[in-house]
Amino acid sequence: MTDAEELRRRTAELLAAHPPATTDRLDFLHARFDAGLAWVHYPEGLGGLGVPRALQAVVDAELEAAGAPDNDPRRIGIGLGMAAPTILRYGTDEQKSRFLRPLWTGEEVWCQLFSEPGAGSDLAALGTRAVREGDTWVVNGQKVWTSSAHLARWAILIARTDPDVPKHAGITYFICDMSDPGVEVRPLRQITGEAEFNEVFLTDVRIPDSRRLGETGDGWRVAQTTLMNERVSIGGMRLPREGGMIGPVAKTWRERPELRTHDLHQRLLGLWVEAEVSRLTAERLRQQLVAGQPGYEGSGMKLAFARLNQEISGLEVELRGEEGLLYDEWTMRRPELVDFTGRDAGYRYLRAKGNSIEGGTSEVLLNIVAERVLGLPAEPRTDKDVAWKDLAR
Asked: Distance of CA 278 to CAs 233, 303, 351, Å?
């Protein structure tokens, strides 16, 4: 049994063999992965040691104190939070060996090809087709709202492989090579002026059957692993007290007493408490993950994350008055990550509007929480047993 002291010893050995001050960043990350200290709860040989997830904090603290480089997790969040858990659960040994190491080190960026123009909230109604030709699948269709597609080497993709069965049953999950000549990525400029999202057109993209995750037609079940992990990674991220959106507002309140009013004070107090409750709830949720895969509670956390971000950013704009109406930069950019705290109040206010759409709309998540967490009766669904090809579109 590997305990905290054993992990500290292994971390010390890593630091002694690869001093951060003199070791190339990528070489250090390779060594850390190979030592099983990347994500300690993963199996040995895949960046872990098969120990409880909670012990990761022991390793991270030792490495941070030593000034060791990290893998820039915000830049590769889709790979770490969504692709990796799905590959670990459903991938073949060859797929795990091929993809997990460069995914964790950040050498290969990932994106998610799920949503479509005609199948956003109703994801199971997707129409991108994958037709098998021997040992290869030929994929045609369009995806939308794809973060990091302009940077990605690989994508997790769900496509319809059988139109003659109900919509949830005829989907298969693939790993798509974004360098395939049939993949076209176009920027989607947002209200912020940036284009962190993209639309992706797939034209005769050829995917070997060896890059299928799970069984043919079982893609919806595989996708649930991705989606539940996505919601935890969005709504359950680890933050210090006053981390996230509440931090800039609290800082402004302390430093700018001339902006204060009684009404704003009451609202700030309420949102500060809600943000702290959400932070602690997210910590509890992460502790529950030690026992296994995330459940539907992550949907509740993502709901709270979206609402809080929008209310807090709105309060910040009001608090700053005329200053809150200013915006620093409208130049079209294609950023590598979303930086909520590194820009001004106007950016936070506009960008937070997307929080109730990305990672599952708030309306859909309310249904999930109602049915899967609270056990309330499900909404009537007339299309449940209808073949996808017969659905009204």
From this structure: 14, 10, 20
Please name the residue that has the structure tokens 């057109």: 201
Q: Mean per-residue pLDDT for 256-271?
A: 96
Tokens of 375: 């056990």
Q: Phi then psi for 156, rounded to 5 degrees? A: -90, 130
137 membership: H or E segment, kind and range: strand 136-143
Please, what is the Cα angle at 77 between 111 and 31, to 5 degrees?
A: 110
- What value does the mean pLDDT of the chain take? 91
d(CA 77, CA 338): 11
Concerning whether 363 is annotated as a catalytic residue, the answer is no
How would DSSP label each residue in 306-330? HHHHHHHHHHHHHHHGGGGG--S--
Is the per-residue pLDDT at 74 higher than 70? yes
pTM higher than 0.85 for the full model? yes
What are the φ and ψ backbone dihedral angles of 271, each rounded to 5 degrees?
A: -70, -35
How far apart, in whole angstroms, are the C-alpha atoms of residue 384 and residue 329? 47
Catalytic residue (one of 108, 116, 196, 230): 230
291 confidence band (pLDDT: 50, 70, 90): low
Q: Tell me the C-alpha distance between 298 and 277, whole Å.
A: 15
Phi-psi category of residue 263: left, alpha or beta, with phi > 0 → left and psi -120 to 50 → alpha: alpha
What is the SS3 assignment for 155? strand
CB 352 within 8 A of CB 309: yes
The answer to whether the beta carbons of residues 188 and 198 sit under 8 Å apart is yes
Question: What is the mean predicted confidence (pLDDT) over 221-240?
Answer: 78
Give the pLDDT mean for 345-366: 88
* Structure tokens belonging to residue 101: 């190491």
- Cβ contacts of residue 264 below 8 Å, gap of 6+? 315, 318, 319
* Residue 170 and residue 139 in contact, taking contact as beta carbons nearer than 8 Å: no
